[in-house]
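Page 42, continued from yesterday. The earlier attempt failed because a stray header line got pasted into the input along with the sequence. Redoing it now with the clean sequence only.
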Amino acid sequence: MATITTTYISNLRTQATHIQSGAQILTDAPTDNQGKGEAFSPTDLFAASLGSCFLTIAGIAAQTHGFSIDGAYVETQKIMTDNPRRVGEIILDIYLPPNNYTDREKRMIERAAATCPVAQSLHPDLTKTVRWHYQEGNK
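This time it went through. Structure tokens are written below.
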């Protein structure tokens, strides 16, 4: 059974619909590939999926062990390569809010996030650069 339906609208734009929730995402081809760049490109979503997955799995680990990463965010950079045109590197800068994380909690977050299903599904030739930033202080 399908989980997503995607429709080609026109002018290099698609609309994906999550069947269970009805949530929708528009994509446009990027400006460097004949598009208008007025929405996420498919490769933007690909890169964003990695960051979202890292945060989700880190959040599960934190919740399971009785602490919070609420307010954490990821800045994602996607680097394209040619021949063939593909995503060559995804750089994630992951920022954790002030929470006085212990060294054990930091290791737990980072190890858990690295096991996310998106990361495990990526081709080994794709470079994944992950930098963790822990803000100091209390929540």
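Notes: The helical segments are 42-64, 103-114, 117-121.
Reminder to self: strip header lines before submitting.
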